[in-house]
Protein: 3-hydroxyacyl-CoA dehydrogenase
Organism: Tetracentron sinense
Amino acid sequence: MGSSTKGRTIMEVGADGVALITIINPPVNSLSLDVLHSLKESYEQALRRDDVKAIVITGSRGKFSGGFDITAFGGLQGGKIEQPKPGYISIEIISETLEGARKPSVAAIDGLALGGGLEVAMACHARISTSTAQLGLPELQLGLIPGFGGTQRLPRLVGLSKALEMMLLSKPVKAEEAHTLGLVDAIAPPDELVNTARQWALDILERRRPWVASLYKTDKLEPLGEAREILKFARIQARKQAPNLRHPLVCIDAIEEGIVSGPRAGLWKEVEAFQEVLQSDTCKSLVNIFFAQRGTSKVPGITDLGLVPRRVKKVAILGGGLMGSGIATALILSNYPVILKEVNEKFLQAGIGRVKANLQSRVKKGKMTQEKLERTLSLLNGVLDYESFRDVDMVIEAVIENISLKQQIFADLEKFCPPHCILASNTSTIDLNLIGERTKSHERIVGAHFFSPAHVMPLLEIVRTQKTSPQVIVDLLDVGKKIKKTPIVVGNCTGFAVNRMFFPYSQAAILLVERGTDVYQIDRAITKFGMPMGPFRMVDLVGFGVAIATGIQFVENFPERSYKSMLIPMMQEDQRAGEATRKGFYVYDNKRKASPDPEIKKYVEKSRIISGVTVDPKVSLSLSLSQLPTHIKGKLRSHVFANDCIWTQLMKLSDKDIVEMIFFPVVNEACRVLAEGIAVKASDLDIAAVMGMGFPPYRGGIMFWGDSLGSKYIYSRLVEWSKMYGEFFKPCAYLTERAAKGASLSAAMEQAKSRL
Ligand SMILES: C[C@H](O)CC(=O)SCCNC(=O)CCNC(=O)[C@H](O)C(C)(C)COP(=O)(O)OP(=O)(O)OC[C@H]1O[C@@H](n2cnc3c(N)ncnc32)[C@H](O)[C@@H]1OP(=O)(O)O
């Protein structure tokens, strides 16, 4: 993270007597402490000067402000940057100096006014914006609450319900809506923005327009009883949607304080609460994710070469199955003309049908109009041969995982596509060198690994071989950004980054079940930890066929650390293949509601016998008293509560143990991925885990979370389990070394063996 000593404001006084204060802190004019001090000084100067009658605040280069400087959070949290005294910014600068000034001020907003940026604007006596401006308080997505008076002023400007929606969902509004809501007073063209604001400020001065201090507005606030009901509902929703998160409730408390006890009390409550949430693990984790996400497109040795992405005007996709149709949907939604090739008319129509259905579901959800659907769909052309491939700039192959089929396709592509065309494969497992073996085009062969459903999931793994040219990667990074994916660039290996981490995740869960832990207890513990679903519910969702196929890849490539089990193949043989067959680890009703199935025990017992393992009292939930050694039984019987039930309690693995036994092997594998140079930086694995696996972002990603527990602790637990349960848990060399040094897992490596 950078230093907070940056940025400034400048002030120019016009002949009209209006002082124009401009915030300058590229790239988004964030409010560093320096900017805030300078803003205060500019204001004080403007207030002192007799030739200044009114003030306009704006941001340089078409951006008002992206809010408080996020790069300063690390320093403030770690004590490296001195905290301003409580209330200095929110009360002294924003409320007293700006809002309480005896000269009127107007915010001229172009581009964005987010977080602290909007809070400064709300303290002005009016706001004028351009039609493309975006305004919002997205602090909650960083684990924070608004800290410069936003919890008090926004409800007073737009009403409580809308303010709660904007804050709790971190959802900005566009200028037009902001105008309707009363957050913006007028909309002006960009070249007239500042002049309109100047005139508005003079109009306020001369009482031709109202002089409004937002903090004391009451007309938009609901009556107290109604407000309390709205807040009560918001609390219920917040608890339901994010049971592990406290800061949304803290935000609601600050809003309530202002409504019940008045805005000054609300401001002070906000000041205290902001300090508290700033120091929270949630905030540190979410800030890590913010920077990690922006860091994925900075690839050393690739994006620092000064290459300019070539324009991709047309894309061809091979295969209209689930993946191919999802990828086609993502591309046409971002206005790329797409050719979809299939092997026969029937498959082609089915593929086009899937794309239509994907779009239709957006219409149903109100995210798209029927008219937009028609326009978007007109970008898709179905074909059965390669003739129209002669002018495409990129091809994405998304056929089944069959090596010889893919080799044939790539040989054909080399013949039909122009020489500059990028040849991408959506394979999730097969070596790209093998796929391109029958071509001479290795420098333009690349992996574009999407996640299902491809038009929804935010991650794109860009897989490069040693021969893939940097230009091709830069091009694909650009396409990824345009189709709103977060791309991570990884090296070529079985499973790349995400599936490499997924394997131990599901294998650890099966190991635990064979040792006696309950399937549903595992899913509950993992969901409570924050995953969208547990490992068994997930296997049901992806289907046992896929789980077995990818499992085989892992067992073949990494036999020494694979936990081999027949549980899933055995269930599949019995026609239990997951949600699609209505039966897997759960049974499903017509509405796809999952219920536990006692029958599962039968399969677990069989697979336990095949694996040659026994129930381990340390992990078992269902051990009965009769199974205990006599001396322990005796001791327990002497206890007044000694019965099967209490024994079950004693033997039960805690949720914490389950989480660690399932996720520490994932951390271990992530360490290998990093040590092998498959991922270039730990933060890319944080993003891979959050966006590819559903790892809770408020835990900061897999490596960040690992570091929060410490390499020594993870190492010692893995050693303990590897003694009991074998190689599967054995810590890798990287983890062992980091633990020995007491070093963090994420810190840059001294000598990465980059495979890239
Ligand atoms: C007390 C207050 O209430 C607390 C606060 O204000 S907390 C801050 C609230 N503000 C936010 O949450 C906004 C966060 N920023 C964003 O959402 C987006 O960056 C944006 C909408 C402003 C711009 O998006 P986009 O144009 O896609 O560019 P994006 O790549 O995200 O950002 C451009 C650069 O600005 C940086 N940046 C963005 N917002 C920043 C901020 N508030 N502080 C410091 N740097 C910021 C990014 O890190 C990135 O840096 P890089 O080029 O070195 O990677």
About this structure: The CA atoms of residues 249 and 540 lie 34 Å apart. Residues 621-629, 631-651, 751-756 have pLDDT under 50 and may be disordered. The pocket of 3-hydroxybutanoyl-coenzyme A is lined by residues 27-28, 30, 66-71, 112, 114-116, 119, 138-139, 142, 144, 146-148, 150, 294 (CB under 6 Å).
